[in-house]
Amino acid sequence: MVYAIVRAGGRQEKVSVGDTIVINRVAGEAGDSVEFAPVLLVDGDKVTSSKDDLANVKVTAEIVEDLRGPKIRILRYKNKTGYKKRQGHRQELTRLKVTKIA
């Protein structure tokens, strides 16, 4: 089984062909293709970790859907002043399916 470690959405993800990953929002519509460059490692018949060899490898993924993460609630409070602030946030995410490592 071939896998690669790529930088996607501000994090490093370990992916192989057929995997589905959720990362920060990527521009594009469902069905579009996205390419990532491997960061650290590609493991197949032989382990590839040198910078020159990794420059030739591309990881291709297809956008499945755009979605939003769970709601987080942010509360700020200062004692004895009457200051309260409530805020919510939902992160914009994209679900990708890895199609090719070549």
Mean pLDDT: 92
Structural class: mainly beta
Sheet with the most strands, sense and barrel status: 4 strands, antiparallel
Instruction: For the record, give the distance between the C-alpha atoms at the N and C termini, rounded to a whole number.
Output: 13 Å
Q: How many β-strand runs?
A: 10
Overall 3D form: elongated
- The number of helical runs is 1
Topology order in helix (H) and strand (E) letters = EEEEEEHEEEE
Poorly predicted residue ranges: none
Question: Percent helix among the residues?
Answer: under 10%
Fraction in beta strands: over 45%
**Order of strands across the biggest sheet?**
2-1-5-6
Domain tally = 1
Radius of gyration from the CA trace?
19 Å
